[in-house]
């Protein structure tokens, strides 16, 4: 991703306030929650938006700057007059399919290795915020995979801490390869337990049936096991659907919702209605 591909505007310096691993040490994946303090008075962002991280240096393909987007994982906070931003960062490494050589992800490794007090250049925010319906009796269907949980952590916190008195159903379906990788739902950090007492909130976990074989995450199975309630929600003109994660999650949802509604044609028509009413929001990468 090139810095020049974005209308980045101003850049700002931020410092690491904390960096905490939120996957257990026995997990194959290292994901860290990093809290940044921005060195300016105002840095306005909302759930569903992302910040840009700019890594300067001599990078591959001659880029002078390496640029990556990270979705904010908490509601806006401020302390001592300075904004704070929380992001989830998965340490990424890639193996070249031809040479077999291991390459480290530039931005993810840079961020994961930054110590407390470390400096990073950021900009933004980017993207369309997750709007909460004015109707507090509207149902919300949230579907995320992997680090796609980050915007939902912020959105759910906003609903129950800021909006309050939510009467509609909030249903979170979240998928990961194993239980160890269920961010904010594992033995290391389980933020969502604080909402289990809310009458309107329920969370469902979708895992791979054979994680060591890298089988696909069974999101379709988990959704179909709740098909009766989901159909009721999809048939309600007030329901809002939010989707976050890798782009291939959209194929899974098209397939499973077409089965629920009886045909691909019926689902595509319903999906078009959701989009036309601004009740379908995607944050995919």
Can you characterise this structure?
The chain is of the alpha/beta class. It has two domains: 3-126, Beta Barrel (Elongation Factor Tu (Ef-tu), domain 3), CATH 2.40.30.10; 140-284, Rossmann fold. It has six helices and 14 strands. It has a seven-stranded antiparallel β-sheet. A five-stranded parallel β-sheet has the order 12-11-10-13-14, sandwiched between helices. The protein has a two-stranded antiparallel ribbon with strand order 7-8. Strand 10, helix 2 and strand 11 (170-176) form a beta-alpha-beta unit. The mean pLDDT is 88.
Shape category:
globular
Helix content: 10-25%
Decide which structural class fits the backbone.
Answer: alpha/beta
Query: Any idea what the CATH superfamily of the largest domain is called?
Result: Nucleotide-binding domain of ferredoxin-NADP reductase (FNR) module
Low-pLDDT parts are none
The value of Rg in angstroms is: 19 Å
- When the domains are counted, the total is 2
Mean pLDDT: 88
Strand order of the largest sheet: 4-3-9-1-2-6-5
CATH architecture of the largest domain: 3-Layer(aba) Sandwich
Q: Roughly how many Å apart are the termini?
A: 12 Å
CATH third-tier fold name of the largest domain: Rossmann fold
**Largest sheet, described in full?**
7 strands, antiparallel
- Percent range for β-strand residues: 25-35%
Kindly provide the name of the CATH class of the largest domain.
Alpha Beta
């Amino acid at each position: 991703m090139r810095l020049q591909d974005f209308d980045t505007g101003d850049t700002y310096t931020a410092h690491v306030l904390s960096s905490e691993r939120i996957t257990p040490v026995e997990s194959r994946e290292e994901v860290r929650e990093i809290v940044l303090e921005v060195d300016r008075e105002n840095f306005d962002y909302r759930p569903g938006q992302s910040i840009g991280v700019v890594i300067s240096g001599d990078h591959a393909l001659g880029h002078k700057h390496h640029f990556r987007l990270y979705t904010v994982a908490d509601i806006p906070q401020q302390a001592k007059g300075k904004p704070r931003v929380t992001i989830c960062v998965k340490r990424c490494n890639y193996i070249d399919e031809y040479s077999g050589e291991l390459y480290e992800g530039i931005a993810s490794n840079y961020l994961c290795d930054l110590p407390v007090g470390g400096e990073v250049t950021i900009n933004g925010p980017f993207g369309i915020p997750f709007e909460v319906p004015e109707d507090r009796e509207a149902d919300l269907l949230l579907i995320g995979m992997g680090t796609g949980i980050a915007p939902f952590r912020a959105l759910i916190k906003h609903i129950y801490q800021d909006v309050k008195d939510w009467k509609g159903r909030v249903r979170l379906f979240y998928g990961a390869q194993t239980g160890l990788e269920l961010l904010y739902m594992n033995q290391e950090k389980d933020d969502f337990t604080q909402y289990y007492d809310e009458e309107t909130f329920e969370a469902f976990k979708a895992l791979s049936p054979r994680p060591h074989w890298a089988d696909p995450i069974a999101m379709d199975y988990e959704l179909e096991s709740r098909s009766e309630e989901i159909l009721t929600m999809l048939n309600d003109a007030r329901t809002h659907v939010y989707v976050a994660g890798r782009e291939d999650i959209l194929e899974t949802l098209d397939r499973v919702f077409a089965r629920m509604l009886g045909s691909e044609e019926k689902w595509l028509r319903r999906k078009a209605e959701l989009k036309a009413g601004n009740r379908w929001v995607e944050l995919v990468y």
